[in-house]
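As promised in the previous annual report, we have extended the structural survey to additional targets. Below is the entry for F-box/WD repeat-containing protein 12.
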Amino acid sequence: MLPSLAKPLKSEQAVEKSECGLRPCKMEFLLPSVPMVKIFSFLDAFSLLQAAQVNKSWNEVANTDYLWRKLCQKRWFFPDMPRKCWHKQTWKQYFLRQTRQEHTISRAKPEDFIYKEMPGDFGVQGYVSYLSKGGLTMDREGKSVVCVVTSRTKLTAWDIGEGAMTWLSPEQPIDILKLASLPEMHLVITVDKDATVKVWNCRDRDALATNRMLSPCRSLKAVITRHGPVVLAGGTSGDLHTYRVPDLLLISTVHALEAPINQLYCSPHLKWVFLNKKEPRVLPKVFFMDSLLRPAEYPTPVFCVISFTLCVKGFWTPRREDRITLMYQRGAHRTAGFVTFDIELEKTEDKINVEARVVASFKLSCHTQSPEWMGVSDKSVIVCSSGPSLLVYTMTGLQLQRFQDYPEEIMQLLVNPIYVIVTFTDGCLEVYKWEERSYYLTKCYRLQNESHLGQQSMIPKTLCDDVSIIRVVARRAQCFLLAYVMKLCS
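The corresponding structure token record, generated without further manual editing, is:
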């Protein structure tokens, strides 16, 4: 039926011509636009590109900005189009270029990277965060920039491509304890041991704003919500503080746990906030983000308690708003397993109910070394490390893959919807990518440790944007910011 809708009736053309005195209107796009756009709105990007090849009418509908904007919102929540590209880029062009940019690292080869080593006193904690968004912009401009705590009391900004420091803050009166960033706004948020929160733009000498928590900070997260940019800070008293950025106006304070908040995970589209501390007597909680951001509308915070103890790590399913997988370790032998919950929100006339419903769970074999790191793909596939092995499971416990040809133990996993980066105790990195329309991982390449750091000299902190991979390491009495940078941006 759809192809036939693309051609208007001759009588309709005649009526338009006789009544308006105009030439016959081309109705290929106007007539079927509403039903076709509605149908095409259920397609993914691959299917939409295929539909555009059918005929001219389908091509016009498939290229509608509304459809590609919807895909962008689904994939990246609400991406900000670079201002200088706003009038040059359609949403389709944005989606395709951003997707290609995301896949840059997974499609690269070892020879596509340049190894850089930047010495500095970065401390044993290695507090570092990306200050730039994505690194490489659509027009091949822009820089990959990170912010690092130096000498415990200073902030430094580094141009990764140039391998040079670009900014240094004044020395602070007390050690910096936590670091978070908002790359979209080129801002950094810090908390020191005196519970003082500060916002920096890494250009000016002094902080843009300052505020003070009532108790020391244990967890810090900066995000851009649909109500604006905020900072979430979990204290040792169990209070969760929400501040507006950049002026650090306190929006709300919620007594969330009867213990320090050590774990704070925001869901992909920032609908939920997961809070926890690994203790037998502490049960995790999930808070409805809007109730934290609009206390006048929600006098009582909206949350649910998850009947689950000794959570070691949690991971929200990418591109799904309500699903989280928790990893536990229990008993003298640290028996490990995973439980996946769907967080369900129900609104009635007089109240809002939130419930955590178990959708899957499984326990690892007693012969499997207890994992330290985990992640989840957008298909709810769980990947975890076990000694020198990388294991891939369905959320019900079916083992899909086991990679175990490693001479060293796995120190850290970095998992996102596109790829997985494995860090080993000898400093080497292994890059995998998630197969398209599949549950499996494919090994891409290995980046060798060129500095021969040794097994016990590396701090487990590996980060990446779309064009670089960085980590802070310690060797003997020295610290280094090490980077693998794509040649096209160096």
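The chain has a mean pLDDT of 85. Residues 156 and 200 are 11 Å apart (CA to CA). These points will be discussed at the next consortium meeting with the crystallography subgroup.
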